[in-house]
Design a protein that fits this description.
12 helices; 12 strands
């Protein structure tokens, strides 16, 4: 079961992010060296706990750099590393920056970021994903970009995409249909799924049935399910002798079509708490209660957009 867990570095590779409850777990000072040490401590703890999937992105500050250094120093075995292109980090290591990242799905952005990622992660890179694909992405009409992405397979890289926004399901189905020279482009899909936002579930189940590796992200709704869960979720957690964060992860693990479930812990202590999900087996009644907590995706994504960067 532990092998189905992955660790995401979105909240630890840069000084500001939107996760609730993150600040208290980070070093008092968030200089580059401070977060490098925090990232290494987290990766050490995750690997010791049996986690073998690590997810990052070009836009996660210096997360790829920190991860690449850790991989070279520790030389861990059997690790799958996934990263993403499409967003650029522009926050200049400033917590109060007016803009922290900018999105661009262009051929030029892909080509430059692929080289940057390979330079930092070397041969450790296993999966390269389009970051936050949506229905309005130029990728769907840019044949040259599609061909360039497909070429990564010749380097032994699996190609995937992540999704966000209220139309995840439609985006997943449309992306699965993309082909180059009669071959499907994408072999992995990473989407937001949690007990509040379940709208992509049918499409993700279809993706799994079609042979794509499904990765779930934001399973704790950017920390809200850990610190501000619905009362019913808190009750189910209590009945299963765990905290709400572990319950949220256990709910994601209960989906048989989910190949990898990412957790966004920023410290070994937070990771240890999250790992309590391994001991949870949710019965039909608990799953029914949790299923009733899903909210309309438009509301969920509006609430997420309002989260501050801190």
């Amino acid at each position: 079961m532990t092998r189905r867990l992955g660790i995401g570095l979105a909240a630890v590779g840069r000084p500001a992010y939107i996760n609730v409850g993150r600040a208290e777990e980070l070093p008092l000072h968030r200089g580059v060296d401070d977060l490098r040490r925090a990232t290494w401590d987290l990766l050490d703890a995750a690997y010791a706990a049996g986690i073998r999937w690590i997810d990052t992105a070009r836009s996660y500050g210096r997360a790829e750099e920190f991860l690449g250094e850790w991989l070279e120093d520790r030389a861990p075995g059997n690790v799958t590393v996934s990263s993403k292109w499409g967003y650029a980090y522009v926050g200049d290591w400033d917590i109060e920056a007016p803009v922290h990242e900018r999105k661009e799905h262009s051929l030029q952005r892909y080509q430059s970021q692929y080289l940057e990622t390979r330079g930092l992660l070397n041969d450790h890179l296993s999966v390269y994903q389009v970051h936050s694909l949506t229905l309005d992405s130029p990728l769907f009409k840019d044949v040259r970009l599609q061909e360039a992405i497909a070429e990564a397979a010749s380097d032994g890289i699996r190609v995937g995409f992540s999704t966000s926004g209220p139309q995840q399901g439609e985006t997943i189905r449309r992306a699965m249909a993309l082909e180059v020279s009669g071959q499907r482009i994408f072999s992995t899909v990473q989407s937001t799924w949690n007990i509040l936002e379940t709208s992509a579930e049918d499409a993700l189940r279809e993706a799994h049935a079609e042979g794509l590796h499904v990765i779930l992200k934001e399973v704790m709704a950017n920390g809200k399910l850990a610190l501000r869960p619905p009362f019913a979720a808190r009750t189910v957690a209590f009945e299963n002798y765990v905290e709400p964060d572990a319950l949220a992860i256990a709910a994601a693990l209960s989906r048989p079509w989910a190949g990898t479930v990412l957790i966004g812990a920023v410290s070994p202590a937070q990771l240890e708490a999250n790992m309590q999900a391994m001991g949870v087996s949710l019965d039909a009644r608990a799953l029914e209660v949790l299923a009733g907590l899903s909210i309309p995706p438009e509301r969920y994504w509006a609430d997420r957009s309002a989260l501050p960067w801190t």
